[in-house]
């Protein structure tokens, strides 16, 4: 399957990060659906052990194996994998040392947990290694098994350390299989085939964390992708009305007359309702202005941005497909 004509046509590993509460896992799931649309095969990976993918797709907890979980718009398949660091380490020991049985013995003794706790960089090498292996994997026909891989990665505050595996394992091993493995992972993560996307809301804290994350990523030589602005609410009022509300020039008497003329309510209650409505309009106008300021801040990062709508009915399968379609319309997939 040829690469689609999108902003990220040459990217095969899409890393999705974001501050907690921004909808990172939701955006990763929707991006997987969007990328698979039209007959492609995409793997969606999670690494934090929260079973977030299973919850979003309304599935039982996922095992440590790749399995099909959804059909994308216009055909195409989404597979999912919940990486278990312990199982990843057993695979690692089998691959490099032929010691899977010994690895299970070490697991029973608690050595695996000890190793990944004392040296968290080693744990990150294991889970990123499994992800990049899926990116590189080819079938018997020589073609890539997956057209794209989407990684639901750790939050923004940890993303650079998580991906910068070569630096993180430098103190563990300077030669040998661990070093070679980390170099292989780094070769994929730092290549043009990878893009690290940020998920944010139009609020001060997640926007600032996004900007800080982009700066750290670039300093580490890692490839920044796009910014997905999630849960965007459309303004239902014209700009002139919003400007008047922010400046305190909203005419309550005019609102009262409008309510009466529309037959919504009459009498003394019309004034009371108009006053309450005016307060809501002012609050809406202030929020809209703040969101506009945050958009300007995000533009300073110089990355492509995509705006995803706030789902009125919450995140369900229908909502995921709606978000996926929005991404495709904007050229993200």
TrEMBL record:
Gene3D superfamilies: P-loop containing nucleotide triphosphate hydrolases
All copies of domain ArsA/GET3 Anion-transporting ATPase-like, residue ranges: 13-176
MF term (GO), any: ATP hydrolysis activity
InterPro entries, A to Z: ArsA/GET3_ATPase-like, ATPase_ArsA/GET3, P-loop_NTPase
Full protein name: ATPase
Native source organism of the sequence: Nonomuraea terrae
């Amino acid at each position: 399957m040829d690469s689609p004509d999108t902003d990220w046509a040459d990217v095969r590993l899409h890393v999705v990060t974001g501050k907690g509460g921004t909808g990172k896992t939701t955006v990763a799931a929707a991006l997987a659906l969007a990328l698979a649309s039209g007959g492609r095969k995409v793997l969606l990976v999670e690494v934090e052990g929260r079973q977030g993918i299973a919850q979003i797709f309304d599935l039982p907890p996922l095992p440590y194996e790749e399995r099909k979980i959804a059909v994308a718009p216009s055909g195409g398949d989404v597979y999912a994998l919940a990486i278990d660091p312990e199982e990843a380490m057993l695979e690692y020991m089998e691959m490099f040392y032929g010691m899977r049985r010994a690895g299970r013995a070490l697991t029973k003794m608690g050595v695996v947990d000890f190793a990944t706790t004392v040296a968290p960089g080693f744990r990150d090498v294991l889970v990123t290694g499994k992800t990049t292996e899926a990116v590189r994997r080819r079938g018997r026909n020589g073609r890539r098994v997956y057209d794209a891989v989407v990684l639901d990665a750790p939050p923004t505050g940890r993303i650079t350390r998580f991906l910068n595996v070569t630096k993180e394992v430098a103190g563990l091993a300077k030669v040998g299989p661990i070093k070679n493995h980390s170099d292989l992972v780094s070769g994929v993560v730092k290549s043009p085939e990878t893009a690290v996307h940020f998920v944010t809301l139009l609020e001060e804290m997640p926007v600032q964390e996004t900007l800080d994350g982009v700066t750290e990523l670039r300093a580490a030589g890692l490839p920044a992708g796009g910014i997905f602005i999630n849960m965007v609410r459309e303004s239902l009022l014209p700009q002139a009305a919003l400007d008047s509300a922010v400046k305190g020039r909203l005419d309550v008497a005019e609102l009262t007359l409008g309510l009466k003329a529309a037959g919504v309510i009459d009498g003394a209650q019309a004034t009371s309702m108009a006053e309450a409505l005016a307060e809501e309009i002012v609050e809406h106008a202030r929020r809209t202005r703040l969101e506009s300021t945050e958009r300007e801040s995000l533009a300073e990062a110089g990355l492509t941005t995509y705006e995803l709508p706030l789902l009125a009915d919450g995140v369900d399968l229908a909502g995921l497909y709606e978000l996926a379609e929005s991404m495709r319309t904007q050229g993200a997939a």
